[in-house]
Amino acid sequence: MNPYIQSLRLRTLPLSVSGIILGTGLAYAANNELFTANDSQAWCVFVLAVLTTLCLQILSNLCNELGDAQKGTDADQHGRQAYGLQAGTITMQQMKRMIILFVMLSILFGSALVFVAFWATPYTVHYTPYTNTLIFLLLGALAILGAIKYTLGKHSYGYMGLGDLGVFLFFGLLSTLGAYYLQVQNLTPEVIWAGVAIGLPCVGVLNLNNIRDMNNDRAHAKRTLASMLGYTGAKIYHTCLLLGCLMIFLCYGHFWVLCVTPIWVWHLWFVWTHEGSALDLQMPVLMLSTGVISCLGWL
Asked: Among 134, 146, 147, 289, who pairs with 260 as Cys (CB 3.0-4.6 Å)?
């Protein structure tokens, strides 16, 4: 496979848009006039939100690879796929150029998203798009900064045990609430809790990754929440993340979430009975089941 494509880490991309899909689905449930044959604006907002989020996820993946390579974190990991920098098929200069490219794409798609959502249609005296534009541009800038600083630089928050919080905020709350607000220009408590709920399994994917890499992370002074909790604590935390997601959706009457319960029960059994590279088998299970939940939000 092309080393550039490997470094994009395509398998992470569906999970990154879960909040966008869920937030948009909840907006459609609140306003069935969205996404009609004549409603091109809603479709454009959705597509641009997905493209912006995908670029941010790829940017995070690239910065993660560069940051880990600079710190030597990925140098001694056996039994795992070697990405471009670790395999020597991509130079650091080439990686930096890719990072600049996806920063520019994130800005381009994000700016287009804000324009289409708030400026593409006439507004009345009761509503002006200036405040919304400023807020979303600032949030976009924070998202780009968050993607870059995850593992890149001296004070990367991924090495300080704050990676879980970053994933929760950006790919849970911000994605869901942002996607909903861009469509209907308001927020409800249910949508906020939905953002919390979908953010929990997204954090679970990162936690599963950190449980797998715990020994290596400790050896390279990478402080993750999992490495601080230890194997048992991290697995208890993982269980709480998934149970929390289920409980929140059930409390709001979204009983369709029960369709993933058997899968997650099996998933948790596997996590509790395996360690190391064997946990790689559970990454797609948790990512795909989270994607299913986000799609069911349209019901």
From this structure: 289
Residue 55 Cα to chain centre, angstroms: 11
251 in the Ramachandran plot: left (φ > 0), alpha (ψ -120 to 50) or beta? alpha
Q: Classify residue 224 by its DSSP letter.
A: -
Q: Is 275 left (phi over 0), alpha (psi -120 to 50) or beta?
A: beta
Find, among 1, 38, 23, the residue nearest to 173 by Cα.
23
User: Which residues share a beta bridge with 48?
Assistant: none
- Distances from the Cα of 8 to the Cα of 2, 71, 83, 170, 251, angstroms: 10, 20, 9, 19, 37
Query: End-to-end distance of the chain based on CA atoms, in angstroms?
Result: 38
Q: Which has more pLDDT, 243 or 37?
A: 243
Interhelix angle 189-212/283-296, rounded to 10 degrees, is 170
Distance CA(252)–CA(87), nearest Å, equals 47
186-205 tens-digit pLDDT: 999 999 999 999 999 999 99
Residue 84 in contact with residue 7, Cβ under 8 Å?
yes
To 10 degrees, what angle do helices 18-30 and 40-71 make? 160
Closest by CA position to 299, among listed 249, 251, 265: 249
The per-residue pLDDT for 125 is 42
The whole-number pLDDT of residue 126 equals 45
223 DSSP β-pair partners: 160
Is the pLDDT at 22 greater than 80, yes or no? yes
Confidence of residue 69 (pLDDT cuts 50, 70, 90): confident
**By the 8 A CB rule, do 234 and 224 touch?**
no
Cβ neighbours for 161, distance < 8 A, ≥ 6 positions apart:
223, 224, 225, 228
- Residue-wise pLDDT tens digits, 250-284: 999 999 999 999 999 999 999 999 988 899 999 99
